[in-house]
Amino acid sequence: MFRTILGLQSQFGNILSLSKVCPRNQHFKCALKYSTATSERRKFYQDVSISQGEGGLFEINLDRKKLKTPGGKLFAVPNEALAIAVATEWDSQRDTLKFYTMHLTTLCNTVQDNPTQRNEDQMIKAALKFLETDTICYRVDEPNGLVELQQNEWDPVLRWIENRYNVTIGSSSSILGPEIPESTKSTFRQHLKSYNFWSLTGLEYVITQLKSVVLALGIIDRHLSVEQAVLLSRLEEEYQIRTWGNVEWAHDYDMYELRARTAAGALFVHLSSESSTVKRKLLQD
Questions:
Q1: Which of 10, 118, 145, 197 has its CA 20 to 30 A from that of 283?
Q2: Pairing status of strand 58-62 against strand 65-66
């Protein structure tokens, strides 16, 4: 029943398979402590299904029991597409439930229980703080190879976002970083207000993973793939690895894990913005 959701995931990588390769998760602090108090548990259900409840919200059913959030609320999401994606996470679990691989479920729990009790304005303010310390705005003076690499790889993305939103961001090798104009902050503030609370939660999650508003919006606007954005966020580390070498398995592990989290956040943004109902015939095997 849930195979077709993989088509929705294809733009951002196969989240489920990446999660299995990278079984650890390092969510932003509150979400990590809040959602993974019990990181694993023996599977207690056989069948996963979705149903539409009160107010048109969609619920997840594990056998005959309705899923609840860690805070004890009925787990309910705003549309069918997101419900199917979450149900896919639960359906893909084997004998042991590995909650740290269930990124979409974690994000839904965070939205519904809102453990930090924030509103949209506070989330937008937090996102804009990342703009002041954006990964691709901080440059080095040396070595020349890294300077050139940052220019070649980061400058095109900066030009894209400045043209896309008609703003000025710039870059700097100063420890203080570039001085972001108030007009730029105002433009992004207005743009972020177009996101609902669910989508803002996903966007903040992507920004936190990449430490970059620019790269996060690059993914959400489909200018960058998840793989491209992750590599760009790790540019200096990748340069050091090519120069000095690394522990191969550790590098691969970190890379796949970051891709999985970033892909999940990007998918969450798009699915939580989805207003149309997925056709029933698409849900058939």
A1: 197
A2: antiparallel
